[in-house]
Amino acid sequence: MFAGAVFRQAGGVTERSTAEQAANPGEESLASLLGGRRAAIDATLPPVAFVAGWLAFGDSVLLGAISAVLVGAVLAVVRQRRGDKPRAVLLGMLGVVLAALVPLYTGRASDFFLLQLIANAGSALAWAVSIVIRWPLLGVVVGTALGQRTRWRKDPALLRAYSLASWSWVMQYVIRLAVFIPLWWIDATVALGTTRAALTYPLVALNLAVSWWIFRKALPADHPGIRHPRVP
């Protein structure tokens, strides 16, 4: 879920985060670099609209799906106007449409969240594998955002810090799965919508803070920082 949002935003954050860092050299963080909180809020609204529409129209899966797609379309327009890349906007809209089609096919309202369950499982696996093979996705994303390409990976200290911090990202997906799977299994649509909202923006904000804390603690005291890989 959020992994895809991070990758879609990575190409657009370098200029903004560089300007912010120049103005506030002591305040840089993963949140300022990746802008994930905004993406998390955007991801919350279509599911909330689906549940609201489903309830408002007498448990109508069709009208719930239409509500979600309409909200997704409005978000797409807003994202385009604020400068997001067209491909990212289209992918976001496609995700909403696909999520809406699943319950229309199965007739089960809670299946609106099925693609999210699959996405969270896939993200947890992808982040864990990336750490094991020593290509931590946090390094890939931040390195891309900062225009470093793969230079960060040639710095043992940065590689270790990114690897340790990436485990926080694995855990956020595992936490979501631990909450969402039982609710989906018992067809608790309203609870899924509520916990989806509760575990999107707040959990993303917490994860950004925790992974940044782990990253900073893992770097040696004399390291020049995230923007300056020590390349032999």
TrEMBL record:
- Report the Pfam families cross-referenced here: DUF3159
Q: What is this protein called?
A: Intracellular septation protein A
Membrane listed as a keyword: yes
Q: Which UniProt keywords apply?
A: Membrane, Transmembrane, Transmembrane helix
| Parts of the chain that traverse the membrane | 54-76, 88-105, 125-146, 167-186, 198-215
Q: Which domain of life is it from?
A: Bacteria
The top of its lineage is: Bacteria, Bacillati, Actinomycetota, Actinomycetes, Pseudonocardiales
- Organism, scientific name: Allokutzneria albata
